[in-house]
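Pilot study result, target chain (214 residues):
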Amino acid sequence: MDKLVTIKSCRYGMEIHMDPDVDFETLLEHMQERFQNSARFFQGAQMAVSFFGRRLSYTEEQRALYLISESTGIDIVCVIDNDQEHELSYKSIVERTLSHVQQNEGQFYRGTLGKKQVIESDTSIVILGDVELGAKVIAKGNIVIVGSLRGSAHAGAAGDQNAYIVALSMNPKSLRIGDVEARRQTIYQENQHIHGPKIAVIDGTRIYLDPLVD
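Predicted structure:
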């Protein structure tokens, strides 16, 4: 019974392994006990979290994340989907996300940006959600969207041509890096040939899309 919940550290943050044959309420109790006993080791940490052993519903996942944050003070930046088909792609996003935090050169925004919402950053920014049609993200550094980009994104807004834009799904209304704006037709055509998360960068005089993971 003492192994109903096992917590392991990993390169991307923390893995939580749960017994698949025990009811969720019992697992929550064991999870709380384990985290309370080790809370001092996690206080203030920023991590990505993965759940193993059983597939959680959205509500169960949210309850587990709330319990972890309340018990330990961990700042959970995102949850890694353990679908093997997408695992490497999500982990690449997480690596970029956490590197911003570790280098103190970026900020986080949690939630989806809806129509007419605009967010600006003097550094790089990580959006933990979607950027919907009609919304805008403007950053002097890089933009990382752990979700879909259907609105507008402008990275390197102070003229940085080396900035980049990353999104799990990229179908933007407008895409701009530095002083270069992407042609919508070009982005649309390149989107047809690239599956999964994408990165937009300047190459020469125009913006190109590349797969985030080869």
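One observation from the pilot: The mean pLDDT is 80. A full batch analysis is planned for the follow-on phase.
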